[in-house]
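Appendix C reproduces, verbatim, an entry submitted by the partner laboratory led by Prof. M.T., so that reviewers can inspect both the input and the predicted structure.
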Amino acid sequence: MSVPCVAVARERGETVRSRLADADALDGDHEIAVDGDTIYIPVADRDRVPADLADRIVERDAAARERPTTPAEILGYEPSLERLGDIVIVDEDDDERAREIAEAVMAADLPCDTVLNRASPIEGELRVRRWDVLAGNGTETVHREYGHEFLLDVAEVYFSPRLATERHRVVEQASAGESAIDMFAGVGPYAVPLAARGADVVACDLNERAVEYLRGNAERNGVADRVTAIAGDVRELAASHADAADRLVMNLPHSADEFLETAVALAGDDCVVHYYDIQHEDDPFGPGRRAIEAAAGDAYAVDVETERVVRSYAPHEYNVCLDVRLTRVDG
């Protein structure tokens, strides 16, 4: 069967395969093949292939891959699972069913050291939750995303692997030399890749443990010289970093509107704001747009460049992002 493959020199095979895996582009249904000095790596989604590899895509017959034993094959039904590094997360109210799923996960041919079940909703201003450890031990892991690594402890920090594509979309807009402020930075999933793009990043978070991980992740990914990590309330930056930002990331969708005054104070003369919100499907973008316009007042012209539904959050509610350009008005 003919499938799209990325064709590269054999010695680059593992490096390119890892990059494609980080981009969630690999085709797991077909075998990787070697022909002479060239390796052919099947891809499932051309759009996810990194731009510098796009011209290496060729059509080629590829053998079907024997699928490993999956949890679904063991259980007889498809469980709801989420991967985060070497942790598999289930979301089950029934303890017996949760442990049944955990046993199947550990018995399957699935790379996994730990299985966790959500034991509480996200709680408090630090946005963390409690977990039941169903198999393995510990709640710390290394998550890989678009070529970067993030060490984190899910019991101490907030992190959602589901936002990987959205984070990458924002990061791809950044340019070398720009000044970016990540107002709610967590362990650095925006800040680190922004710095890797060449931006100088100030990353702030109220969770001191998250900031410790952020500093470590900046070191781990070789961008510590371009990331300034600050533990505390971002509103305290308004004086020291006023008028400094070319780009602002506001990923605190339940309450980002409470920080718009600070965002306007931090914005430079021409600043792009990535504003995240959760709103009803009847008007998912209007409340955020109006809140930004009100905060900008007469100081900035407001141009909403992108309105994007990131994901469904709850029945009839969406997690959305507005990319908004603020341009200072003279006089």
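The chain has a mean pLDDT of 93. Additional entries are available on request from the coordinating office.
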